[in-house]
Amino acid sequence: MIVLLAEPETSASVLYGLYDVLLSAGAVYTDMVAGTPGQELLEVKIASADGKAFHCLGNIPVEPHAAIDDLDRADAVIVCDMYTSIHDVPTGRYPREAAWLKRLHRDGALVCSVCSGALLIAETGLLNGHRATAHWAYRSMFQRNYPKIAFRNESVLCLEAEGDRIVTAGGVSAWHDLAVYLIARYCGYRQAIETAKVFLISGHSEGQSPYAVMTRPMASEDGPISDCQTWIADNYAMAKPVERMVARSGLNARTFSRRFKAATGFAPIEYVQALRIEEAKQMLETDTLSVDEVGVSVGYDDPASFRRVFKRGVGLSPSAYRKKFQRIAQIARPLEVH
C-alpha cells in the first residue's frame, strides 16, 4: 500500500497526479493497446491528519480515505508538497504527521517526499546525516535551518538515502520521476515503462539546475552586507567585484567573507558568479547575442572561463541552455498576426 499524505497546503496537481498514475499501474496500458483492462497493481490511499474532507491549494476539494492514526502500516508513504514560503520555516507545524512518519519508517515503510514535502521529513530528523532534495528555492532554508542535511538542489530525484528507506523528489513536477521509481520498485521495470508511455512521462534527466533561479534574501540585519548586496546587483560585471565589496563594507576580508556567508548562504565569489550566471541565463533565453558576447556582458572576458562557470552552475553549456529554453519560448510565444 502506498499512502499519499496531503494537507491544505498541498497542490492538487501533485496529489491527484500521483494518485492517478500510481493507481493506473498494470491497469491502463493493456486497455489502451489491446482493449482489455488489466489489474491494478498498487493500493493507493490518500490520508490527512484527521481524515476529514478539506480543500487544498486552489480551493480543490479533497476527501481522504483515512486519518493517519488509522493507518499503522504502509509499504511507502509520500509526503506531497506542502507549500511553505522560503521565509517561513514550518517548525512544529505538523507534529502529528511527523510522529506518524517516524513510526511508519521505524516499522519498515519507505518515506518519500515531493518538493516542499521534504521539509516535513526534515522536521522528523530522519534526514539528518543524509543527502536530500526539494525545490531549488528551498536551498537557503535547508542550509540555515537543517545544517545536518546535505541539500542537493540540482537533483530531481535523490536516491542517496534510499538504503535508509528515504527518497526525496525536487520541484512540483518531480512527482513524475518519483511515480515511475515507485512503480518500478513495487511492480517491475516493464510496468514502469508502460505507465510512462501511457502518461508521456519522460523524466527530468538534466536535473533541476537548468530551471533554478538564484534566491537573494537581503541581509536586513547586517547593514554593510545588505549595502553590498544592493551595490553588486547593479555592478556584478565589474572587475574584482569581491575586493570592491570588501572595501565598500569597511571590514577586513576575512570578517566580510564570514558575515556575507552567514547572511546570504553564499561565499562572496559564489554570490557574484551566481548573479552573473542568472543574468546570462536571461540573456540566452531572449537575446540574439552570441554566447561569447553574453559572457563579456556579465563580466567574463575569457569565453572558456564563462562556459566552465556556466556549466558548473547550470548543468548545461550556454548553447544547450539557449536551445532548451528557446524551444519553450517557441511554444509559449503567441503567434504573430500579419
TrEMBL record:
UniProt GO MF annotations: DNA-binding transcription factor activity; sequence-specific DNA binding
Keyword match Signal: no
Protein name according to UniProt: Transcriptional regulator
Domain annotation HTH araC/xylS-type: ranges: 226-324
Pfam families referenced in this protein's UniProt entry, alphabetically: DJ-1_PfpI, HTH_18
InterPro entries with a match to the protein in the record: Class_I_gatase-like, DJ-1/PfpI, Homeodomain-like_sf, HTH_AraC, HTH_AraC-typ_CS, INH-QAR, Tscrpt_reg_AraC-type_HTH
Source organism, top-level taxon: Bacteria
Alphabetic keyword roster: DNA-binding, Transcription, Transcription regulation
